[in-house]
């Protein structure tokens, strides 16, 4: 699969007849909403775990020195917390470019804090995409993140802002918080 998923995503969902769609964000989409939305609500999805296993060539790294950013991997029974945004379908024109480095849109069932449910879309970079880096220990991921930077800023900033946003949501993501702990012990961080 090519790195750039913009065109694939453009043809993936038919929004005709929909004037708004829910989007579930679990990584930078939680804390960086650089797009218009009608409303946003904390939400959770089941069966997925957040992992820093995706390479970033365009935001928090470069093609020669990719950063490590969040994707979701299947994990039965696990609950992943994030932020749901109700958006107009034309907002996907911007989002598909933002998430173009290996992420594809998938349909997911979301549960809001008050127990309500809705169907939404979520960007996932699966293990067959060209930028995928895969598992590593949390200490190694922290060392990698400490060195990477790209056009959107340092990889460290991505991780620390996500950790703060998850704390605000009251989430206990052991993977993210372990990377954060390792990162904070490294020189210069
Ligand atoms: C997301 O936040 O939902 C997708 C991954 C990212 O943009 O960090």
From TrEMBL:
GO MF terms held by the record: glutathione specific gamma-glutamylcyclotransferase activity; transferase activity
GO BP terms in the entry: glutathione catabolic process
Metal-binding among keywords: no
Domain of life from the UniProt record: Bacteria
Any one Gene Ontology cellular component term annotated for this protein: cytoplasm
Top enzyme class: lyase
EC number: 4.3.2.7
This protein's UniProt keywords: Lyase, Transferase
Glycoprotein keyword on record: no
Name under which the protein is recorded: glutathione-specific gamma-glutamylcyclotransferase
Organism: Oleiagrimonas citrea
Organism taxonomic ancestry: Bacteria, Pseudomonadati, Pseudomonadota, Gammaproteobacteria, Lysobacterales
């Amino acid at each position: 699969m090519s790195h750039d998923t913009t065109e694939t995503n453009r043809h993936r969902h038919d929004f005709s007849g929909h004037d708004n769609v829910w989007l579930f964000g679990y990584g930078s989409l939680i804390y960086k909403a650089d797009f218009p939305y009608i409303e946003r609500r904390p939400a959770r999805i089941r069966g997925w775990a957040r992992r820093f296993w995706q390479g970033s060539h365009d935001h928090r790294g470069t093609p020669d020195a990719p950063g490590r950013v969040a994707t979701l991997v299947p994990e039965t029974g696990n609950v992943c917390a994030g932020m749901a945004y109700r958006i107009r379908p034309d907002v996907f024109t911007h989002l598909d470019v933002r998430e173009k480095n290996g992420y594809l849109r998938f349909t997911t069932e979301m549960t809001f804090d008050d127990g309500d449910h809705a169907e939404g879309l979520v960007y996932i970079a699966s293990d067959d995409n060209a930028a995928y880096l895969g598992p590593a220990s949390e200490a190694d991921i922290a060392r990698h993140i400490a060195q990477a930077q790209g056009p959107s800023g340092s990889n460290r900033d991505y991780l620390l802002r996500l950790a703060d946003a998850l704390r605000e949501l009251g989430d206990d993501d052991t993977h993210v918080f372990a990377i954060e702990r390792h990162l904070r012990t490294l020189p210069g961080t």
